[in-house]
Prior knowledge:
heterodimer; A: 482 residues; mainly beta; CATH 2.130.10.10; 2 domains; 4-stranded antiparallel sheet; 32 strands; B: 433 residues; 5 helices; 29 strands; WD40 repeat-like protein (chain A); WD40 repeat-like protein (chain B)
Amino acid sequence: MNLSLVDPFVLAQDCPEVITGRLRSGHSTSIRFSHRGDLLASGRHDGVAVIFDIETNGVARKLRGHTRQVQSLSWSTNDRYLLSAGQDWKCVLWDLKDGSRVRTVRFETAIFIAELHPKNNMVFVAALFEDQPVLVDMSADVPIKHTLPSAPRRSQIERENASEKQAAQDAKQTSTVTVFTPSGDHIIAGTNKGWLNIISTATRQVQYSTRFTNNIIVFVRLTPSGRDVVINSSDRIVRTLHLPDLSDPKLDFDTLQLEVEHKFQDLVNRLSWNHVSFSPSGEYVTASTWMNHHIYVWERGQGSLVKILEGTKEELSVVEWHPFRPFVAAIGVDSGRVWLWSILQPQRWSALAPDFVEVEENVEYIEREDEFDIQPLEEIHKRRLDQEDEEVDVLTVEPVKSATEYEAGDFRMPVLLDIEASDSEDEVVAIGAGQFRRKSPGTGREWMNDDELVASGDEARKALTNGTTATTQNGTKRRRGG
Amino acid sequence: MDGHRDSPPKRQRDDEDGYDEYPPRKRSSASLSPSSASPRYRIAERPAQRYSRADDSDDERKYYRSRSRPRSGSGSRSVIRRRSQSPSCTPTPPKPTTLDYKPTLILHGHKKGVASVKFSPDGRYIASCSADCTIKIWDAQTGKLEHTLEGHLAGVSAIAWSPDSKILASGSDDKTIRLWNISTGQPHPTPFLGHHNYVYSLAFSPKGNMLVSGSYDEALFVWDVRAARVMRSLPAHSDPVGGVDFVRDGTLIVSCANDGLIRVWDTATGQCLRTLVHEDNAPVTSVRFSPNGKYVLAWTLDSCLRLWNYIDGKGKCVKTYQGHENKKFSLSGAFGTYGGPPPYQYAFIASGSEDGDIVLWDVSSKNILQKLIGHTAPVLSVDTHPTEQLIVSGGLDRTVRIWRCKEDFAIQPQPQDDILRQLQVLAADGADA
């Protein structure tokens, strides 16, 4: 509701400019914004997944279940569930209502990326290291893994003429990245040989394949509309392309021709790109640079570089764009901090008093004819009160459909008050008002000794329900602030 | 620096020697010139009440004493106008011109004046805070005392419910803000420390992740509720901050102060987006957003409530509500609805008054719909139930009173016995579980 009061020139800006903040909880390795944009999930080097509240820049929840670095994160469409993939070869589906683990799915190999189905949060697709990607159905207690093909779809002629060598090569191809389209009907997969496959979720068959590069496709990201794709590959080129409406039944995959719209690269410095992402509308493409401290922002209309976000003294890995604001978050590789870029809004002085006016140059004041006339106060008041005859409606809520606004039935993450779960500087614990001390090594890691059987990774909730009485869990007396 | 600091207009600190004699307030009366000012507001007396009922028992007369007041011409005018309109559009039921709230419960227990009463967002509980350093949680339907929250070292001026109704925040003259677990009645171990003076008003953000507090130290703090730390300090005012509120989507904060300013802030950036001042510059003691967030309602110490359109232009006062008395205390109130389902739903404003009444105004016509009479001392705080036709009030007579309006109030007056079903819940100190 603040939009009507904010300077329209500020609102017109759509590209972040300066560092406006940073978030810290341990050493972040992957981040992802929730769909509503009020939360940022961060996977840590020690396996803890942390949910940051973007409004308060504080930790909203900690999810403990992975024993190694968190590799990728994916939110369900209603923002209630979070899927995390760890380097401990596990995927965990978290319920943010109480911080419990809904499902844990193990794999025989490392996971590159795991993405939740946009319509069904019990289905996800994962790209695996040196293995074929899998579509996992977790609705039953025992997850069902369906293997997806990576070999590109060949036309009839190609198949007949295929040599044995090529067939063997196709069989050796693996997918390095898999993402759902927004409808969930298709999976876009990138392979280690540079092919882009469009796989039908229902039939689990490759429907269309195309090749833009001979190098590994590192990352693929779609806009929320699903009509634009950005591809990061190891040949140091970021490509964008338009997709047709894949759910259109009239679409013929046999005649489909995908063409690269833009190739973004730095020919001078020969930079390679760590991570790429779209702005919410797909208007801008951002990429973090390898061995460099910058984030490049290109706009897609002309394909030109419009901005380089800088200000950090470290290389940046994952860079993510807020779902609807000009707001970019990126992870510093060395410190593990999450850096935030946004727009600085200057204070408008005219807002500080009703008779302040912002003028470009001096204006000669012209006295009103009746400015110093003395009028009986009672008259003025009476007239004023009589003028207040307009109908006012204080009840009707205008249906502003912005993503920030919560509907009645929407999931809201409960607010936890436990300070142990809320400290944002991990090495430091608050022991009183404004007093902090360094945490003794090993504290807070008791969960690692927990058996896998503990269904809830969220001790905070238990502590909360136990009230303030000294809580003893697993034989260790928990330290509490204050 | 000024002498008036000595006797702040705390809602509850003055009733220590009995609430019927008030020590001098913070605003020196000279600055307000109440004696000379009051005639200007005489036109405020427009009790446009009209009771078509026939039964005329003594008790009824007691409750609707205001009927006997002389009706000023300006007050009845709008009533007549509406009357004349109604026959032309027969299918729409006429807008009610009176409300019929009746006393249901009187909750005793606080040992000093009650500074604030609030219904929980789920409507189950009433929280009341008092100068006796306690907060009491009552069942909204039965009036049963659920908890007495003790822990503050000084009187409690402000309370705010979290949106999930599980946590209550309280601000006290001991400069702290505390959170309370409603299911257990236990305080959260970490108090919110930071204010240098009395905490005066509180409001939770709609998501419950932020708390805004206004203090006598002239500052406005936005707190990260989870970490119990000040997230943002707003250089708000040059006088004690009287009231704060969050808009319904949490993007705006409104604050008001004794300097007469009402400021609207952007929650995300902490910048002032709008400043509203009435030309008389009367101290603003309490402020609230309208339910749809388009207007701001402000209580000022010139016995007026003003409804501001803060969006258009530079902000404009669209309505002035008068008829109550407010010269000394930080009164507060609430928006409520009456009439029926949404097409025929109208809004009213409920506010306490220093003469012990609770005044209900229609928002659009500014007519007084009802005066609830019962409190024997200034009514400092009034709140409306989120769904039902219930009003709760608390005042310096140390009672919390619940008032109920029959849904079909316009049709039939209720028999006597039902009206005076006054239960007295005497809460001994240790009575709560």
